[in-house]
Design goal:
- There is one protein chain.
- This protein has about 270 residues and is an alpha/beta fold.
- About 40% of the residues lie in helices and about 20% in strands.
- The protein has eleven helices and eleven strands.
- The protein has a seven-stranded parallel beta sheet with strand order 7-6-5-10-8-11-9. The protein has a four-stranded mixed beta sheet with strand order 1-4-2-3.
- Helix 1 (about 10-15) packs across helix 5, helix 3 runs parallel beside helix 4 (about 60-75) and helix 7 (about 130-140) runs parallel beside helix 11 (about 250-265).
């Protein structure tokens, strides 16, 4: 068992909370039972090391933890037990939940996504809030999107808050990161997808847009939305209608409505 909170190993894991270190080491953290169970189940190749604090085996948490450790062992993942103090020292959270994985990057190249002839993409630009980015990724996963693309002006997808807020969805669908927005728009259009800007200024209502064709939702900053040159580059600017007195919807709420509108159409028999 690792018990020394001052060890180099503990310090190196804790340092992954900083973006510069993540980029230099090409590693990131997945923390908590949900994120760790999903990466172990769906992307075991990405896990460099798995650390755990032994929990009571009689409770649900202990049973779930053991199930994760069993799958990790089956996949040949390096597993090490640590003390509670060490897990706290390693973690980005104040109250760690027994499991922490050090992972290799899982984002993919844009070409790899477009080569699969996608019909339903989500494109985020200038999205800076980790919770919003993670929630949109989670929503895209739930709605059956083929991939999520983030421009280079958006938050780092390996920010621990992004990873936690995806609740494991980060490991379920392809993620493209770090590509300039102009390149994303040009390449997605060239691949035959309509570019649908989600913006409160749109003249087209969500319920009136043709979502049976291949398309990509383009979503922008939490505060100011999409930049004029981005909306100008899109085929249609779509707004979610507001029937009550609310001034607007936040990014995550609006994204969920748009994505599920697409899911309802894309999953009809004969569409895909």
């Amino acid at each position: 068992m690792l018990t020394n909170i001052g060890s180099d190993r503990v310090k190196s894991v804790r340092a992954l909370s900083r973006r510069a270190v993540r980029e230099r080491e090409s590693l990131f953290l997945a923390e908590g039972p949900q994120a760790v169970s999903e990466v172990v189940a769906h992307r075991p190749d990405a896990v460099q090391n798995l650390y755990f604090e032994a929990l009571e085996r009689t409770g649900h948490a202990g049973t779930r933890q053991q199930a994760v450790l069993d799958v990790a062992a089956e996949n040949g993942i390096s597993i090490r037990e640590v003390s509670h103090e060490v897990l706290v020292a390693m973690s980005d959270t104040l109250v760690p939940q027994g499991l922490l994985a050090v992972c290799r990057p899982i984002d993919v190249r844009l070409d790899a996504v477009l080569d699969e002839n996608p019909r339903f993409l989500v494109l985020l630009t200038n999205v800076r809030d980790p919770g919003n980015a993670g929630t949109v990724i989670r929503g895209a996963d739930a709605a059956g999107a083929d991939a999520v693309l983030l421009s280079d002006s958006s938050v780092d997808i390996y920010n621990p808050k992004v990873v936690r807020s995806t609740v494991g969805s980060l490991f379920h669908l392809p993620i493209v990161a770090g590509v300039p927005i102009a390149v994303l728009l040009d390449r997605v259009r060239a691949a035959g997808l309509a570019l649908l800007a989600a913006d409160g200024s749109g003249d087209t209502l969500l319920g009136d847009i043709d979502l049976a064709r291949p398309h990509a939702w383009v979503m922008g900053n939490e505060a100011w939305g999409l930049e004029p040159d981005v909306t100008a580059a899109c085929d249609t600017v779509v707004r979610v209608p507001i029937y009550g007195k609310a001034e607007s919807l936040n990014l995550a709420m609006a994204a969920t409505l748009c994505l599920y509108q697409s899911a309802g159409v894309q999953n009809r028999p004969g569409i895909r």
